[in-house]
């Protein structure tokens, strides 16, 4: 299955982090 991708905890952390960042940007 090719090279291993990031595990789910890391994926969720990145997804949540980017979502929080976007929300923060929109608040301004």
Automatic annotation (TrEMBL):
InterPro entries: Kinase-like_dom_sf. SUPFAM superfamilies: Protein kinase-like (PK-like). This is Protein kinase domain-containing protein. It comes from Nymphaea colorata (pocket water lily).
């Amino acid at each position: 299955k090719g090279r291993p991708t990031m595990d789910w905890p890391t994926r969720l952390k990145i997804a949540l982090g980017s979502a929080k960042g976007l929300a923060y940007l929109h608040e301004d």
